[in-house]
Design brief:
Blueprint lengths: L3 E7 L6 E4 L3 E5 L6 E2 L10 E6 L2 E6 L6 E3 L2 E2 L4 E2 L5 E4 L3 E7 L69 H27 L2 H4 L1 H4 L5
Parallel strand pairs: 3-4
Antiparallel strand pairs: 1-2, 1-11, 3-5, 5-6, 6-9, 7-8, 7-10, 10-11
């Protein structure tokens, strides 16, 4: 038959184990309980465990703060399964688990019969790789330090080309000719308006002016 125990997860003594043995046992605050937990959350007679068919059945004994299994409050009997959490009120939690037994027929191997540990392999030394040959450097002038290239000069754009126009004398002559032409045209228009062609230019019209 498997043996069981309760391990306190939260409460006044976390990690403490309580063996679950016998046909019936109670959990409570009083010292005469099989599992005594001295805490204000626990009632004097809080819950009862009864062995039925090789399994323990838990029942709440009308406790003030209630008995819970996996967060569900008990209202009747519950068959415990290993790994379930029993809570007494809100502060006390116990893990229900199976007690592992050691096999008495297991063979113990003495330290003298253990396999010898093989020696650690010796470190292998690797030759350092030879440095790569440097590329040949350009030969300089013997006894003379090569001069550095002249600095680049800033590019200066050429000045914009001036538009070629007519020379000033040609402009003056053109203006004078234009004025003379306009004056002649105006003069002839005035002569024509007063009908003085014969008075001013009789040699042009000859007998037409007689």
């Amino acid at each position: 038959m498997a043996q069981f125990q309760l391990v306190m997860h939260t409460g006044p003594t976390p990690g403490k184990t309580f063996p679950v043995e016998g046909d019936a046992l109670t959990i409570g605050r009083e010292a005469n309980n099989a599992i005594a937990i001295n805490d204000a959350e626990v009632s004097r007679k809080h819950a009862q465990l009864v062995l039925q068919g090789g399994k323990y059945v838990i029942t709440d004994l009308g406790s003030t703060n209630g008995t819970f299994v996996n967060g569900q409050r008990l209202t009747g009997q519950h068959v415990l399964q290993p790994g379930e959490i029993i809570s007494l009120g809100e502060q006390i939690s116990l893990l229900y688990e199976v007690v592992a037994k050691a096999d008495p027929n297991a063979t113990v191997i003495s330290s003298a019969a253990r396999m010898p540990v093989p020696p650690a392999p010796e470190p292998v030394s690797y030759a350092a790789p030879e440095p790569a040959a440097r590329p040949p450097q350009p030969q300089g002038y013997a006894g003379q330090i090569p001069s550095s290239p002249p600095p680049e000069q800033a590019y200066i754009p050429p000045p914009p080309a001036k538009k070629k126009g007519l020379p000033l004398p040609a402009i003056i002559i053109g203006v004078v000719l234009l004025c003379l032409i306009c004056s002649c045209i105006g003069f002839f228009l005035w002569i024509d308006s007063i009908n003085a062609w014969c008075d001013w230019f009789p040699f042009l019209f000859g007998g037409a002016c007689g």
